[in-house]
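Honest question from a wet-lab person: if I give you the sequences of every part of a complex, can you actually get the arrangement of the whole thing, not just the pieces? Trying it with mine:
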Amino acid sequence: MEEIQYLGEHLIYRNLGQFAITFGFVMSLLAAAGYFFATQNRNSDSYKSWRKIGRFAYTMHGLSVFTIIIVIFLAMLNKCFEYQYVQQHVSEDLPFKYIFSAFWEGQEGSFLLWMFWNVVLGFILMWRAKEWEAPVLSILSGVQAFILTMILGVYFTAELKIGSNPLLLLRDTMDVPLFSNADYVSLLQGNGLNPLLQNYWMTIHPPTLFLGFASTVVPFCFAIAGLWTKKYKEWLKPALPWALFSASILGIGILMGGAWAYEALSFGGYWAWDPVENSSLVPWILLVAGIHAHIVARNTGYSIKSAYLLYVFSFILILYSTYLTRSGVLGESSVHSFTEMGLESLLILFMVFFTGLGLVLYFLRKKEIPGPKEEEALPAREFWMFIGSLVLLFSAVIITGSTSLPVFNKIVQIFNPEFEGYTITEPIQHYNKYQLWIGVFICLLSGMAQFLRYKGSNWDSMSSSFWKRVGIISAFSIALTVLISLWIDLKAWQFWMLAFTGSFAIIANVNYLISSIKGNLRLAGSVFSHVGFGIMVIGVIASGLNQTHISSNPVMQRGLLPDEMLQNNVLLFKGMPMFMSGYRVTFESDTLIGNLREFVVKYEKLDGDGKPVEEFTVVPTATYDNKVIKVSAFNPSTKRYIDKDIFTHIATLSPRERDFELARTIEDSLDYITYSLGKENPVIILDTVESATTNTVLPTKAYLLGIESDPKHADYKPEEGDFAFSVKVAFEKDDTVFYAEPVLVLRQQLLYSFPAQINGLSFKVRLSEKTLDALYPPEDDLGYKRFSLKQGESVNLNGLDIRFDGFNKKPEHPGYIAQDDDIAIGAILNISGAELNKDYIAEPLYLIRGTSPFNLKDEIQEIGLHLRFVSINPETEHIEILVAQRGTQLENIPIEIAKRSFRSDYIVLESIVFPGINLFWLGTILMMSGLGVSMFRRRSEKY
Amino acid sequence: MKKIYIVAFVMIAVAIGMLMNAADDMSSYSSFEMARETGNKVKIAGQFSKDKEVHYDPEVDPNYFTFYIMDTEGEQRKVVLHGAKPQDFEMSEQIVVTGRMKGEDFIASDLLMKCPSKYKDEEVYIKSTKGT
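Yes, you can. This is the full assembly:
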C-alpha cells in the first residue's frame, strides 16, 4: 500500500519526545551504574570519577524528563489532536488554567508528575547529601529507570509491549477509515477534560499527593544505602528530616483528596475507605511507624531493624498502591475508575525488584546491624514507642489485607477459574470496626509515653509521680468525655472508650507541652501531632457517628428502619418552601452561566412559633458537559459553622433539566393551539383531567389583562435594539386565578418567543408572529392620512384635535442617535379631545443625514395614535405630517396555549448535618504541621 | 526480648480473632436465591436489564427508584433503592447492589455502577458538523 503523506501533523513533538524518553531512560541506567561504582569504590581514588559520571548522567536524565513534560505540555497547549494523549484530555475550548489538570489526568501524565518530583528530589540530594549522594542516587536512578519504563512504549507485538507511550499519534493506535484522509488532522476534535475534574482541587491535589508519593523514596534510599555501605547508624541522622517531610506532604496530599471529595464531589463525606484512598493511607501509616522506630533508634540504638523494615515496606506499599490503582485489578470495588494500560506485569516486576532488593540486603546484613544487648526496660519510653509502631503496622496490615481482597481473588482464580471471589459486604463498617481500636491504643500510647524517659532512667524515683499524673489526666479526660457526650450522642460503649482516649491524648500532650518542655514550640512537633490525632478522633466520632439528614423522613422513624429503608431526599419545587427538621427550605432560583448551573436554596431556622430565627442560603450546582446538553455532575454547597457543617447537594433534577435535548424534544411535542383572546368575553378552554375512576372535563376561563412594553422573563436578557413586549394572560379555574406573561422579542429581524409555564394548570402559553402582527400591524396597513400645517394651526382626526405648536431644534427621540452634520428637527404636536382625560404631546422627528431625508415616528399608545413628520417647506413654513389611529381595544389577539405541559422546575435535594467536622480538619492539620515542626528541628540537629 | 514476645503473641492472638470475625464481613457475590433463603444482607453483582423498566418519578416519590438486574444464576429481579436515581445510570452495564430481599423485590441500601470504558467510535474524534 502506498504511504499517505499526512498534512498538518506536528511530528516535532513526537520526534523530540521520543528521543527524550529513550535518552532519559538510558541516562537513568547510566546514573544508577555510575553511582553504583562510586559507592563500591567510595574509599578509592576512582570514587570521584565515578561520581562525576553519575552526576552527569542523572542531570541528563533530569533534563530529559523535563523535556518530555514540556513537549507534551506544548502539544496540549497547541491543541495537537493528532496525538492520542492530547485528544483524550484536551479540547478546543479548554481554558489555559486547566491544561495542567489535563496533563496529569491520564496515567502517563501522572507517571511523569511522579518522575518530575523524583528528579527534583534527586537534584536536592545531589547538592546536599554529601557522602550519601552516591548510594542514595544510585537507588533513586534505578527507581526512575523503572518508572520511565512505564512510558517507554516499546512494542514487540500488538499485545506485548513495555510501557504506554504518551506521544503516540491517534493513527498509530487504531485503524479506521478516517486515516485514509491525508488531511485528517483538520477534522479532529478533543474529548476534553472531564467536567468533574475542572476545578482547582484537580490543580493542587495531584502534585501534592505525588510529591508525597515520590518523597517516600528518600527514606527508602537512605535505609538501603545504610545497609549497603554498612553505616547502620549514620544514615539515621540525614534521613530523619526527609522522612518527616515525606509523611507531612503525603498526609496533606491525602487530606486534600478527602477535602475535595467532601467539598466538591457528592460523596457526602471525607473518607469512604475506598481502595484507592486506603492504598495511599497505608504507606503513610507505615512511614509514621517508621519515624517512631527511627526516633527510638536515634535516641537509644534500639529499633534500627524496625526502622529499616518499615521504610522499605512504606516504599513498597507505594508501589503496591500504584499497582492496585493502575492495573485494573480493583475493578468493581472502587469508585475511582482507572483504565487498564497493560502495565500489570511491569508493575509487578517493579514491586518484586525493590522488595527483593530491600529484603535480601536486609537479611544479608541482619546479623551485623548493631543493637543493645539487653531488653528494653518496661517503663522505658522506647519500649512503648516501639509498641506504638507495632500498632500502626498492625493497622496497615489490616487495611492492606481487606483492600487486597480483589488481588487475593485474582490469584485464587489463576488456580481455580471457578472461584467466584470474595467481597466485603459493607466496607465502611468493616474498616471502622477495627480501626477504632487502633485509634484507642494510639491515643493511650501517645499520651502515656510522653512522660516516660528513654531507657527508663530514674523510674524508681519518678514512678509515683508518673502514676499520679496519669490519674489526674484520666480524671480530666473523663470530665471532657462527659462534656463531649452532652454535645454528641456516643451511642455505644466503644465510642465512649474512643472519646475518652481521644481526650486523654489531648490533655496529656497539652500537659506535656506545659510542664515538661515548658512551652518550647521548637520541641513541640510531637505534641502538635498527638494532640491533632486526639482532636481528629473526636472529630471523626462527631461527624461520622452523628451525621443526620435534614432532608429525611420524620425523626421518629430513625432507628426503627433498616438503613436501606431510610429516605434521604426531598423534592423541592421552585418557590415552594418545605418544612424539614426545623428548617423551612426554599428553592428560590437558578441560573446557568457557561456550563455551570447554580441553584439558590434558602434555609430558615424556625423557632417554636414558626418565626425565622436564622437564615442562610447555599448554592449547590450542576455541571453540564462541555457542550451544555447533559448534566455531568452535581456539586454540593456547604454552610459552615464552628461546630457543624450543613452540607447540601442536588441528588437529581427533572429529566428535562438534566438533558436539554430531551427538554427540546418534549417542548417540540407540545400541542400548541391558537386561541383568539381579548379583554372582554373570556374564552373557555376545556381540559381533561384523568383521575382513578373517571375523566373529568374542567373548564378554564382565559382572557387578556394588558400589554407590557418592558417585559420581564427569567430567560430573557434585554439587549440594545431589542423590540420586546409581553402579554399578560389570566386564567380562571374554580375561583383561582392564574397569570402568565409570555414574552416576544424582535431582535435583528428574528423573533424569539419566551413561553410562560402555569404550573397550577400545567399549561404553557406563548406568543407567535401572529400575535405581533395583531398587536403591531405593519406601517402600510395603518392607513396614514396626510396633513399640511403651519405653526399654531390644528387639524381634526376621529374627534382628536392635533395642533402644531412649533419646532424643537434640539430634539430627543428614543430611536435617534445624533451624528455630526445631521440636521434634525422635532415637530411639537399637542393632541386634545373631548373624550380624553388630558392633553398629549407628541414629537415626531424629521432628519436630513447626508443628502437624504428621514423621519422617525412618535406614538401615543393609550389612544393608538401614530404620527410622522415627513417634510418641511421653508418658504411657506408648512410642515407635512402623517397621522393614523387604530383601535386600542385588546380583542382577537392570537395566543398559543399548550395543555399538558408539566413543570420541571424542581430539585431533589439531600441535606446532611456534619457536627464537629471542623475538629477533624483541625486535628489533621495539626498532625501534619507537627510533622513539619519536627522536620525543621531534626534538620538542625548537630549529631 | 521476652516482653516483645509477649506483645507479639498477644497481637497474633488478636489478629486471629479479628480474622475469624472479619470472615463474617466477607462473602462471595450472592444471588437472589441466596438472599431469599438466608434473609441476610448480601451483595449481588448483576447485569443491568436494559430492556426492562427503569422507574424514577421524583414528583411522586424522590426516594423510590427501581430497575431490574439479572444475577449470575440468570434470575432477573426488580431492585428497589430508596433514594435518588444516580447520574448516568442508563450507561451502566454491570451493577453491584447491596441489600436484602423483601417479598418479590430486592431492597438495596447501596449500589455501584460499572460503566463501559469510553467509546471507541471514530465519531467522537471528528468535529461535529452542527457547530458548537
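Two things worth pointing out. Chain A touches chain B through 61 residues (CB under 8 Å). The two ends of chain A are 72 Å apart (CA to CA).
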